């Protein structure tokens, strides 16, 4: 794939400064770009790279005033990052091999249906009673149980497992190896100290525009539904236990675990390796920093929480600073004790 | 599936108060139940829901005295929760599509055998020299290596991988995507700073009634066996390294990791995201709270441990409380220092 | 497989003390070994087991002086552990069923090639435009996307997923269920609070001699490459985000997570459940203890770091000791305050 800078500028509605005939074959970050690459500059912090980059062309803002001569050809457009993102999307569509139709052998139960424009990869498995929409892509080794519903334009990646009765909305992405809807970790203790599995008859509901990361696990509800609401993005290796609810447009980073029946509000951000206890709730717009532990319900919106017994992150950071000098602090208390006036004699 | 309340009461050996002809089509929690649902009330804490629930019927104790009129029909039985669990099991059996026989294409080495009543899903793989018992269910994309033994009534879910020489008991469940018996993380440092893999010739043994969670990983032993003893329940995304031993009826929640050669006693409970160092042991009946780190052997039975360098959880919680006000505590020490009597002049 | 002690000593170039005709059928640790086992003694700490072991034979150093009579036959060689490792390798090769050729059904795109000596397991999938070297083993249910390159003697285990454009060197091992090269967790926040996926057009590069653990996840770069350099060993359930770089001969234990664009130096050791923030770097030869959190760049080589806001591990351990007695420390401050001299009256 090769285009001239002039062709790209034309598509983006931008103006060219420099050699419009220069050839571009790929996209790169401005700090890493070499010959043949097209980069962008949106954040002023990166401007120094403009004068050192090996890129053949750089997309910049019309307002940018050059402080030095530059070697790459410039394309000036009003929103450089947005323009670059469009090129990324175009590049991805052009380079990824589009797959449609059915590769053999693939398995689909006779009572299941799938809409037009679908892909069913070799060794994909679809059980009975499933209803899959249009342009649904089922990659190789994906497993779809019985009575699963998947909306239009959703993608189930290689080796993802969607257990029976799961409901998936439109434009969802379930990445490779994710397990959605398997039985939750519910066991009733018996008189002799052993445990007996409690039947899990609920399901998982992923609303529209949800993304589930690679090798993440989402358990079905004991009864009712484990729910990930519209637009929520769940990263790799995240665990969502039975009956968890994740709010709209909430983002959860890798390796975070949410215990049974916990509820995360809308527009929350949970960083990586966070843990959240069962049956507690997080208010909307809560931010939780990496490795924090949420043990109690948080009712006030918009807080930032930190720490393994999480509380306000600024307070936590101040406490962390003192924690480092605890041995010295203890020694200072010892010194004070030694230096105390002798107790008055009676 | 639709039954009358009277039919259900008859099966459970209970008595009906209200409309015995009301139709029930599903099971639900009392706080979420709507028309057509059957719920139960076992815990007095939930009694208020009895007067507001939308359930068509609720299973209650014979002793329950109503404080208000109720709209659902009541079924009175001596153990409401136990009765409800029986219905859950019945519901699950009735709604889950039972699979038996072999879906094609499936692969099984000629020297392997499987007992009566089995299921081998499409795209399941069984190597050579395996001996699988009766009523063993092997779901699609499951991988079974060579010389694996699996006892009667065990279930290997979709995409689970059971490596060669693994021994699995009766009534075990290995959930989707779990990896059992792969080579452990054993590398010998070389003189040049590189590492060389140490051959791992041991195996994994899962005794009877063990459950392994989705995408959990259990490494084989370097020599000998990594062992999960009878009735232990391991949750999703848990890591058990080479030569680990997990005691009988011990429960380990999601994302916990146990390093090589560590031993967990019987009847222990490890919460989520716990870490345990290599070669240490936990006494029987130890409880470890979420995100704790166990770095040393614990010999006294029955303790509750907390913290990333774990110690007694009550002591830990008191320390956590003071941790939050460390900046103020330090300031109080500064004030004391300022306020000290001047040292006596010599 | 049965050998006499004399035969084994002959192969190892060692001398026999005791019954050279004794039969050995397996390898075991000296503390666990029973009749028919061959064990080794390399570490003086384990010498007491030499006098109690049930092993039929033990490999020991020529220098070892017996303090008591021993029951096993001894094989004396100059490097007992090295000799034993050779036997481990031999044992593993002899007992693991070597697989070559293609098991049916397997899928490979017409434009892909694979070298001599390969294995393609049943239900393995290889897309278009892939170039796989000699003696490459692709186990059942492995998924290889498009344009993937894999060097000679590399092994892709059961159900591992290698996404398009990944480059894998020679002698690499990707264990069961690992996901390499799936889209990173990159989302652009929109004006309405929702998120839009940023196309991820980069790839993953695993250099020679890299090992990736079971169910680990390694995201492709947004642009450019996520790189794991020569000889690095990555354990089970580890998460490496987009554009991460892991240095040569670095070891990362299970369940550790490295956020986007972070860089780990050469010869580092990260223990289990470590978290590392995005865009930070670790100097060469850094050691990070279990469950630590790295939030800032570490420039000085050779440090050992501990704690969820990680700092020097000795300092951390001293602070942890005081942390446990924080309630008492606070009480001592209260006592000091009570005992202060009254402020002087003006």
Low-confidence stretches of chain A: none
Class of secondary structure makeup of chain A: alpha/beta
Which fold does the CATH topology of the largest domain in chain A refer to?
Answer: UDP N-Acetylglucosamine Acyltransferase, domain 1
Oligomerization: homotrimer
Whole-number total of structural domains of chain A: 2
Query: What is the straight-line distance between the termini of chain A?
Result: 96 Å
TL;DR of this structure?
The first copy, chain A, has 346 residues and is of the alpha/beta class. Chain A is flat and about 80 Å long. At the A-B interface, helix 4 and helix 5 of A face helix 3, helix 4 and helix 5 of B.
What can you tell me about this protein's structure?
The structure is a homotrimer of 346-residue chains. With 346 residues, chain A is of the alpha/beta class. Chain A folds into two domains: 3-96, Udp-n-acetylmuramoylalanyl-d-glutamate--2,6- Diaminopimelate Ligase, Chain: A, domain 1, CATH 3.40.1390; 101-315, 3 Solenoid (UDP N-Acetylglucosamine Acyltransferase, domain 1). In chain A, 15% of the residues lie in helices and 28% in strands. Chain A has five helices and 40 strands. Chain A has a twelve-stranded mixed beta sheet with strand order 8-11-14-17-20-25-28-31-34-37-39-40, with helices on one face. In chain A, strand 39 (304-306) and strand 40 form a beta hairpin. The longest helix of chain A has 16 residues, at 80-95. The radius of gyration of chain A is 27 Å and the shape is flat. Chain A starts with a strand and ends in an 8-residue tail after the last helix. The mean pLDDT of chain A is 94. Chains A, B, C: This is UDP-3-O-acylglucosamine N-acyltransferase. Chains A, B, C: It catalyses: a UDP-3-O-[(3R)-3-hydroxyacyl]-alpha-D-glucosamine + a (3R)-hydroxyacyl-[ACP] = a UDP-2-N,3-O-bis[(3R)-3-hydroxyacyl]-alpha-D-glucosamine + holo-[ACP] + H(+). Chains A, B, C: One of its GO terms (molecular function) is N-acyltransferase activity.
């Amino acid at each position: 794939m090769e285009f001239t800078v002039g062709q790209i500028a034309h598509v983006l509605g931008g103006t060219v400064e420099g050699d419009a005939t220069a050839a571009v074959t790929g996209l790169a970050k401005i700090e890493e770009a070499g010959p043949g690459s097209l980069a962008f500059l949106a954040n002023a912090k990166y401007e120094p790279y403009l004068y050192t980059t090996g890129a053949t062309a750089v997309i910049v803002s019309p307002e940018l005033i050059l402080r030095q001569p530059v070697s790459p050809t410039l394309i000036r457009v009003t929103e450089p990052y947005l323009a670059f993102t469009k090129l990324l999307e175009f590049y991805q569509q052009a380079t990824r091999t589009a797959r449609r139709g059915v590769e053999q052998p693939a398995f689909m139960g006779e009572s299941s249906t799938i809409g037009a424009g679908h892909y069913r990869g070799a060794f994909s498995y679809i059980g009975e009673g499933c209803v899959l929409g249009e342009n649904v892509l089922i990659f190789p080794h994906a497993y779809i149980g019985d009575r699963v519903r998947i909306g239009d334009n959703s993608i189930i990646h290689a080796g993802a497992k969607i257990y029976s009765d799961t409901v998936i909305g439109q434009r969802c992405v379930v990445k490779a190896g994710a397990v959605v809807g398997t039985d939750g970790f519910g066991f009733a203790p018996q008189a002799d100290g052993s445990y007996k599995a409690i039947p899990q008859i609920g399901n998982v509901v992923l609303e529209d525009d949800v993304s589930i990361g690679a090798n993440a696990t989402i358990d079905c509800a004991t009864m009712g539904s484990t729910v990930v609401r519209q637009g929520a993005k769940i990263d790799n290796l995240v665990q969502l236990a039975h009956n968890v609810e994740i709010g709209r447009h909430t983002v959860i980073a890798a390796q975070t675990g949410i215990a049974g029946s916990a509820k995360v509000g809308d527009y929350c951000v949970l960083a990586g390796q966070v843990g959240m206890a069962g049956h507690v709730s997080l208010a909307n717009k809560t931010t939780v920093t990496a490795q924090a532990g949420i043990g109690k319900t948080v009712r006030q919106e918009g807080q930032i929480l930190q720490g393994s017994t999480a509380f306000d992150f600024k307070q936590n950071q101040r406490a962390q600073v003192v924690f480092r000098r605890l041995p010295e602090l203890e020694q200072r208390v010892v010194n004070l004790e030694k230096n105390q006036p002798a107790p008055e004699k009676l």
